[in-house]
Structure formats: C-alpha cells, structure tokens
Amino acid sequence: MPSPEEASTSSPPPAEPPSFKSLGLIDPLLEALNQMNFKTPTEIQAEVLPHALQGRDIIGVASTGSGKTAAFALPILQKLWEEPKGLFACVLAPTRELAVQIAQQFESLGSAMGVRCATIIGGVDMMAQKVALAKKPHIVVATPGRLNDHLEETKGFSLRSLKFLVLDEADRLLDMDFGPIIDKILKVIPKERTTYLFSATMTTKVAKLQRASLSNPVRIEVNSKYSTVSTLLQYYLLIPLPQKDVHLIYLANTLAQNSIIIFTRTVHDAQRLSIMLRTLGFPAVPLHGQLGQSARLGALTKFKSGGRKVLVATDVASRGLDIPSVDVVINYDIPTHSKDYIHRVGRTARAGRSGKSITLVTQYDVELVLRIEEVIGKKMELWPVDKEEVALLRERVDEAGRYATNELKEQGIKGGHGKKRKRGGDEGGKGDMDRDDDVVEAGMPKLKKNGKGRR
C-alpha cells in the first residue's frame, strides 16, 4: 500500500475542461451562451477559439453537428464588440437553409450586443435584400450566387471594408460548382482580412481554395476520420426493387411514433413519396430544391416543431442543418458517395442522443452498401420484417402510388429531374445559381451547358 503522500502524487489530477470564460470570451457573449444553454465548449470550439481570438486565419476540419458555427461566430462577434461597424463579416454557405440557420445563430449569440444580420439567398425578392444591405448590417450570411448578383447589380453595395470572410462547408460549396463565383467574390473583397475556412473533408479543391484565400492559417482537425457516432444503430433491409415503396410504408407504420427523415436521390421521388405517405395517413412534408423558399422554410419549421412527423428530403437536408430531435433516418435510395451516407445518418443521434438509420437495399445496391460499411468500419444489422404485414399493405400502397403519380403529372413534375425552372423565376435571375444540387440526382455527374458550368 502506498503512503497517502505517495498516493496523492502518483498521477496528476485530470485537466479541467476549458470553459467559455477561460477561453477569453467577453461578458455579452457569455451571457448569450448561457441563455442558449451552451455550458461547455465542444472540441472544435475549444481548439479554434484561442487561435481565432489572437486574429489568426483558421482551417477547421470538422464533421457536421460539431458546433463549428459558434466556433467561427464567437471570435467575429468579439472583434465586432471592439470595433463596431457595418458590413463587418461575410459568411458563405452552400444552401439556403444553412445560410438561414447560421444567421439565426449569429443573432442569438449577438443578442446582448444588438447585432444586425442580413441573409442573402436565392428564392427571395432581391429588392427587399437591397434595402437590407443599404442599412449596412454587421454580418452578411449568403449563398454565393445571390451575393455575386448583389455585388454586380446593387448600387452602393460593396464589401471593400470587410474584416472577416467565412467559407462554411467549403467542400460542398466546391462540389456544387461555386468555384468560379467564389473566385469573383475573392477579387472584390480586401486582401487584408481574417479568413475562416470550415470543411468536413479536405479535398484537392478545398486545398486549392485554402492557398488562394488564407494567410498563414492554423489548421485544426477534429474527428478527421469519417465515421458515424457510437449511439447510432444502423440497419439495412434487403428487398427486390419493385417492393421499395411497400417496405417504406411498412417501416413508417412500424415507427409511427418517431420523427423520421426519409432521404431520396431525386426531387421526383421526394415529392411522390410525400404525396403517397399523406394519402395513407402519415403527416409528411417534402423538402427539395424545386420548392419555393417559403415552402422550404415552412416544411423545416413544421418538422422541427413536431407538427409533421415525417420529412421526405433530397440531400438538401443532409448537411449542416441542426434539427434537434430526429429519431430515425431512412435511406430510400442509397447515396452514391459514402460521405453522403455519413452526413445523412448524422441527422439523428446528435449531441450524445441515440438514433436509428435504416437503409433500403435492392439487388443493385449491394456493392454500395459494402463500400459504406468499409468506410464506417461497421456492419449494418438486418432489420426484422413481418412478411405477412407487408403483403397486407401491398394493395393500398400500390393504389396510393398510382394516385401520387397522377398528382405529379398534374403538377408537371416528370421523371427524376422535374421540369426546368425559368431563370427569371427566382426573383432576380442569376440568384438561381445558389439552388441546391438535387435538381440533378445527388452524386451524379453534372452536365455543363454552353461551357459555363451552369446547371
């Protein structure tokens, strides 16, 4: 037995986890964090804040749901408190929903400071945005296409006095062919600025963007290996292709008390399945890039508030969106890329909670599933099915499917891609460039037209 003295010195006490106060944040931010119930910094926040508060450029590699929005918002707001001025920071995001969410977080974190934020996205009237920009908000959160429209067309608006630029979900920004637009934006903002680049993966495109836009950055990597969280239970269902619909309805029936996100590859299937589910009595809403902006935000709000239990979505909803309590993710279609699978199932089992994912696997998908299992280092379990119950559902599901197909014909949504929208339909033409990449099938090669890369 060691003596008490020996025992006390045999191992050092565990290091205290840092607090937001110990990281050097000012009182107005601490007050806002307390109101938002943010008790302790996440790993990415604890790593980023000391360097960011010293004024360094940051490359943050962190998975979705890691708390990276606050990691870049807090140092920007702290600097704004010291030097209050309009058009202080600009955040670029790949999707409209993510831009709205980032702006909301800036407003919440800056509530004690009276921060003014403008969200500049497609699908919204440009004139109202021009008015908002004329008031010189402190923070502009934008999708690249619409921001570029304002830089080219809105008199009196420029970002020449910008102090901070954030590129959030940079890998997705570049996957969506925003590279040329981002290059244009980089040419008209000051070179003397602080830049934060956050990405879930470091692709060669992201590395090239980093070299073009950052100065002597600190690289911070959290959870660099692609993986799913341990609290997520992952299942698969092996079925013949013609029986996908009936097995989806069987799952919706079995899991009726849960909040569910169903991911599809195409806009057509997202719309068709939501009609089918509603016809069969399930409260479902669709979310995809062909909906108007108010319809998209409306669908998200209904699902987040619990007014609708089922969200049928394309990959618009797979990245970045913080939907607090999702019990189950169902992959109606398997994504082509393993990282998209990880982002999709990352909508559940967030912040330490448990969750389930169920993937429908047809005879054509086996190779994709094996590839996903290799990447995540786990084998999915077989979800048990009551074959008699499935057989009983078949007739009603077939009938609902025919009804949904007729509805879609009336709405003019055909095939996998839907009808093309006119350029002018986005309240300002070129802002349509910021629409999401689900109008073509997610993960499929994009055809370039007229050599301009527009889709």
From TrEMBL:
Annotated region Disordered: the residues are 1-20, 406-455
Q: Where is the Helicase C-terminal domain?
A: 243-391
Low complexity biased stretches: 1-10
Q: Which UniProt keywords apply?
A: ATP-binding, Helicase, Hydrolase, Nucleotide-binding, Nucleus, Ribosome biogenesis, RNA-binding
Q: Where is the composition biased (Basic and acidic residues)?
A: 424-433
Instruction: Please give the Pfam families that the UniProt record associates with this protein.
Output: DEAD, Helicase_C
Named from the GO MF annotations, one term is: ATP binding
Protein's name in the database: ATP-dependent rRNA helicase RRP3
